[in-house]
Write a structure and sequence with these properties.
Serine Threonine Protein Phosphatase 5, Tetratricopeptide repeat, mainly alpha
């Protein structure tokens, strides 16, 4: 440990490459900051070292020493969270794991590993797990333990943000723990919402924020009320980008954002639409290649879009019709998804990407890598919702990892698409 700290001292105090572009006064400031960083590293105060390193890099962006130790500081700050998430995941407390990874993603928005972990873990959360959380929450409410109820319900809402039952129970529990000063406003806002008087409800929640700016629930309710009030506009915006009308979609979302500036998802989608219109103002090509391009872009734009399905859709569109537009879409998404390309099955030879992913899913099942099989089948279903083989193998993947309820649900959905499929009927019969 002593040698490690000595090494840190030597490296941190070294003058960074490119210092000749820094004024003597700035260089003096950098040296002072580095000395402070060394002290903080020795004391294990990595979170406090972060702002100092940011200041160094603001003065000299090419300071390799500061960059290196900024990465170390970030890693040290994240480590306890990573351990908590790993422990929660191992104990099958998936909602808690997602909650921690979501915090890490907000701390490091450019690190897509956490988004991948969230996506994978969401697929592992069964209805049984959610039902258990509901039971716990309802019992807590009966016992008058509203804070514990809120904790359980927040776990559900992390995974299912639009779950009406969870949101209703959460609101009920929240109304019993809020400050006396704000309770009357919460009650009045709730009454207005029942009457669909959205503007009046929003005014009440804003009064709450004036009293107590830390009432995050009030901010969420405002966003939710505006979304409900503008429900048709939200739907029209989504329909627009799904059919390939990106300029129209952007206009809708700008209108929404002017009335609902707290909607983070809309801000995200607007930013992505700004990128998309640089590639194509609209995609109205007919046929399967056009459908695949629109699916690829839709999954890129959507806040909850499947990024791997987006990339696979672009590859498939190019395979179907290697036109200038499919080349542009494919190139655009490959640049956007650099971080996930190494985790995907890239196109191989003349095999179309759908057949390739179905083949890969089957191999994963044979090799016992069921999570990968589930991932590949999910991508195919996103591109071809009526692909019965993908549904069958998806159900097999769930069955193999012990999620029999999920497997039955998957096969039952497939049976609605192909009601005469004897194999599906046999699968469902065996699982009951």
């Amino acid at each position: 440990m002593k040698n490690f700290l000595t090494l840190i001292t030597i490296l941190v105090l070294a003058v960074a490459t490119g210092a000749d572009a820094v004024t003597p006064k700035q260089l003096e400031r950098i040296e002072q900051l580095k000395k402070e960083v060394v002290v903080l590293f020795k004391e294990g105060k990595f979170d406090q070292a972060g702002p100092l390193l940011n200041e160094i890099l603001a003065i000299d962006p090419f300071d390799k020493t500061a960059s290196r130790y900024q990465a170390i500081a970030r890693q040290q700050v994240m480590e306890p969270f990573c351990k908590d998430a790993a422990e929660a995941f191992q104990n099958e407390n998936y909602a808690a794991a997602i909650e921690v990874w979501d915090k890490l993603l907000k701390m490091n928005p450019d690190d897509r590993r956490f988004a991948n972990l969230i996506d994978i873990t969401k697929n592992l959360i069964t209805d049984k797990t959610t039902n258990e959380m509901y039971q716990h929450a309802e019992q807590f409410i009966k016992d008058g333990d509203y804070k514990s109820a809120l904790n359980e319900l927040e776990k559900i809402l992390v995974v299912r943000p639009y779950d009406g039952k969870a949101r209703s129970l959460y609101n009920n529990a929240k109304s019993n723990v809020v400050d006396v000063r704000t309770k009357k406003h919460y009650d009045q806002a709730d009454a207005y919402m029942k009457e669909k008087k959205y503007d009046l409800a929003i005014a009440e929640w804003r009064k709450i924020l004036e009293i107590d700016g830390s009432q995050e629930a009030a901010s969420r309710y405002i966003a939710s009320a505006v979304k409900e009030k503008m429900g048709t506009t939200y739907a029209e915006a989504r329909q627009a980008y799904e059919r390939g009308d990106y300029i129209i979609a952007r206009d809708y979302y700008n209108k929404i954002l002017s009335d609902n500036p707290t909607d983070i998802d809309v801000k995200t989608m607007l930013s992505r639409l700004d990128d998309v219109v640089k590639v194509a103002l609209r995609i109205d090509e007919k046929g399967q290649a056009g459908d695949m391009m629109r699916k690829a872009m839709s999954n890129y734009i959507a806040a909850d879009g499947n990024r791997k399905a987006s990339m696979a859709g672009a590859w498939y569109a190019f395979q179907l019709n290697p036109s200038s537009l499919t080349i542009a879409v494919k190139g655009f998404l490959e640049l956007k998804y650099v971080s996930i390309l190494s985790t995907m099955e890239a196109p191989v030879g003349d095999m179309n990407i759908v057949d390739q992913y179905l083949f890969a899913a089957l191999n994963h099942i044979y090799e016992g890598r069921y999570d990968l099989a589930i991932q590949e089948c999910t991508i195919v279903i996103e591109l071809q919702p009526d692909n019965i083989l993908a549904w069958k193998r998806l159900g097999s993947g769930y069955y193999a990892i012990g999620k029999k309820d999920k497997a039955r649900e998957t096969w039952e959905r497939a049976l609605k698409i192909a009601p005469n499929d004897a194999e599906l009927k046999q699968f469902i019969k065996q699982i009951k």
